[in-house]
Amino acid sequence: MMGAMPKIPADVRDRYEKLKTAVNRYRRLYHVYDKEEISPEALDSLKHELSELEAAHPSLISPDSPSQRVAGQPLPGFKKVRHKVAQWSFNDAFTPEDIRAFDERVKRFLRSSHGEVAPTYVCELKIDGLKVILEYQKGVLVTAATRGDGAVGEDVTQNIKTIESVPLSLERPVDIIVEGEVWMSSKNLEALNKAQARAGKPLFANPRNVAAGSIRQLDPSIAASRKLDMFIYDVAQTSEAMPRTQAEELDYLRKLGFKVNPHHIHAKDIEGCIDYWETWKRKGRHQEYWTDGVVIKVNEKKYQDVLGYTGKAPRFAIAFKFPAEQVTTILEDIVFQIGRTGVVTPVAHLKPVSVAGTTVSRATLHNEDEINRLDVRLGDTVVLQKAGDVIPEIVEVVKDLRPKNTKPFKWPTHIHECGGDGRIERIPGQAAWRCVDKSSFAVSRRVFHNFAGKHALDIEGLGKKTVDLLLENGLIQHFDDIFTLTEGDVLPLEGFAEVSAKKLIESIQRSREVELARLLVGLSIPHIGEETAILLAQEFRSLDALAAASEEKLNAIDGMGEIMAKAVHEWFHDKENLKLLGRLKKVLIIKIQEVTPHGTLPLAGKTYVLTGSLKSMSRDEAKEKLRALGADVSASVSKKTTAVIAGEEAGSKLNKARELGVTVLTEDEFLKLAAQR
User: What predicted TM-score, i.e. pTM, was given to this entire model?
Assistant: First the structure.
C-alpha cells in the first residue's frame, strides 16, 4: 500500500505561488504590453527556481504554471472539438464603393426595428494568420481549437500553450470563450529560414503558412521553437456582462490579460473607416505581422444583435481587403506553351520574386495582342501583380528602366514543339495562334492526357507519364489504339512489372463502356468543355445523330453559340475525325443516358455555378446532383446565373456574383436544395 504524499511546507507553497504569479505577470508585461520590468536573464532565473520547486514537489504543478507552456511527449493525433459557439467567416469588400454599400445594407436592415439610425464602427487590422478559439474556465485555459468547418475544429491546446502572449490564467476567474489570430513575425520567419538553410531544408514561403503549420504539429516542442504570437479580438461568450460596444469589448479583453492589437479606431461613420483603410493599405505591409485588410464592425452591440448573421457571415461586419500586391522584376525570356488543341500561349520567364507570399518565376502573357499592348521586351523591368491565389500577371512595363537597344518582341512564325515544319497560324477572328500540324507530339500528348483524364474516360492508371511512354514508344497513335493494347505491349516499358501491366490493361478494358458526354469531352473538340458536352449528349443522345446535325440545328440549341456550333460541325465533317469515330465505335460501348424531361424537374431552367471546395462532396458529385434536378451547371458567372454555390476558399466567381447581385448559397443551403425531388 502506497504511503501518503509528503506534506508540502507552507513556506514552500507560498514561495511557489508568489513565483508563479510573478513570472506570469512579467511574461504578460513583456509579451502583451511590451514592457520589461526585469531583465530577460532575471526572468529566466525566476523560471528556473519555479521549475526546481515543481521537480521537488510535483503536486504543486497547476495548469496555469509557466512550466506548462512546453509539453513533453508528441501527441498521437489531434482530437476533434465541437465549438460551443459557431464560428463565422467574413464577407469581403475590395473598394470604397463596396464599403459604402455595406453601410447602406446595415442601415436599411436596422431601419425596420430602429428607424433612421447612424451606427458607428470599429476598424481593426485583419491579421493574416490562423484563427484559434480559446476557452477558459474560472480564468484558466482549458481548450484551444482551430476554426475547422465552423462547427468542429481540432484540439491544439498543447501547441497554443507554447505561445508566450497567450495567458494560461486570466486576471479574474471568468468563464469565457475568445477568438484570435496566431501569427509569426517576419523577423522570426527570417531567423527560421536561416536555420532551415543551414540544415539543408526547404525554406518557408511566408509567416502565415508557418503559423498554421506550426500549430498543427503533433510535437509541441516544434511550435515552441517557432516563437509564435497571438492577438485576441473577439469575445464569443462570457459569464460576465457582455460589453455594450465593440470598442469596450477590446478594452475588456485587454484588462483580462489578452494581447490585443493596438491599431484599432472607433469611427463615427463609414467614411472614417475608408480613411483608416487608405492609411493602412500603405503601411500595413510594413508591420512585423502580416495584414491583408481591415475588419469593420458595427460598434453598438444592440445593433449587432439585430443584424445577426447570414448563412456564413455576420451582417454587422465585413473584411475590407487591401489591393493586390504588386512587385517589380525582370523579364528574362518569353517561351511558348502548346495546349491540347494546339493553341500557342506565351509565358514570361521572370527573375524569381516573392509576391503575395509566394515565389514566382512564371506569368502568362495571354496572347500576341497582350504583348503588343504592353510593349513588353526581353530585359524589361515589369510590374507583377498577384491577388491571393490568383495566377500572377504582368500589368505594366517600367519603361524608364528599359535597357538600351531593346527591340519590340517579334511574334514567331514557327515553333519547334508544334512538330512537322513547326508552322503556326493565327485563328481567324481571335487573338490566339495555333500549330498548323495538329498531330505534333506536344499536341498529341495533351489530347491523350485529356482523353484518359478524370472528366473524360477516366482510365485509372493511365496518367500523363504513362501516356507519354506509350506515345514515345509508338504504341499508340490514335485513341482506339489504347483499347488494343495487351499486357505484353506494356510490360517492356520503364516502371512496369507483370502486376502493374495487368492492372493497367484491366483498367483500360473497364473503360470501354463510356457515357456519350464523357466521350465528347475526351475528343478535344475545340470550344467544347464538360458542360457543353453534357448539353450535346442530352440533345442528340447518340454519336450518329450528333454527327449528322447541321450547323443551324446546333446553333439553335440554348446554350450554344455560333463559334461552338461551327466548331462542332467542322469537327464532325473532318474526314480523319470520321475515320476515328468509326474505329472508336468498334472498341467502345457508348452509353446513352436516359434523360428526364427538364420541365418535370424542380430546378429546370435554372443555372448554377460552383466555386471553392465543398466539405460533403467533390465538385463533380455536386454537379451531378444539380443536373439530376434539371439544373444547368456553368463554369462562369453572368446575370443569367440563378445562384453561385460557394464552398471554402471561394475565388473570383464569388466576387463576380456579388458584383452582379447574383444569389450566393452556402454549402448547407445547397444541400437543402439538392434534397429536393
Answer: 0.49
**137 and 223 share a domain?**
yes
Q: Report the distance separating Cα 151 and Cα 134, nearest Å.
A: 14
Q: Are residues 522 and 480 in the same domain?
A: no
Specify the length of the chain in residues. 677
Domain count, the chain: 6
Q: Are residues 315 and 171 in the same domain?
A: yes
Pair (535, 652) in one structural domain: no
Q: How far is CA 663 from CA 388, 618, 643, 656, 657, in A?
A: 23, 21, 5, 11, 7
> Quick check: is 503 in a domain?
yes
Burial-class residue 338 by CB neighbours within 10 Å (0-12, 13-18, 19+): buried
Residue 433 domain flag: no
Same domain, 143 and 44: no
In terms of domains, do 172 and 289 share one?
yes
Q: 227 and 138: one domain?
A: yes
Please give the residue range of the domain that contains residue 494: 441-511
The kind and range of the H/E element at 637 are none
Q: Is residue 244 left, alpha or beta, with left meaning phi > 0 and alpha meaning psi from -120 to 50? A: alpha
Q: Is 109 exposed, middle or buried (0-12, 13-18, 19+ CB in 10 A)?
A: middle
Query: Is 493 part of any domain?
Result: yes
Which of 290, 305, 321 is a domain's end point?
Answer: 321
Q: Coil, strand or helix: which one is 592?
A: coil
Within 8 A by CB and 6+ apart from 93, the residues are: 99, 101, 102, 318, 319, 320, 321
Q: Which residue has the cell 501569427?
A: 183
**pLDDT tens, 162-217?**
999 999 999 999 999 999 999 999 888 888 888 888 888 777 767 877 888 888 88
Active site residues: 126
- Contact, 185 vs 288, CB < 8 A? yes
Summarised one tens digit per residue, pLDDT across range 568-603 is 999 999 998 999 999 999 999 998 766 555 556 788
pLDDT tens per residue across span 399-418: 888 998 999 999 999 987 78
Contact criterion met (CB below 8 Å) for 334 and 409: yes
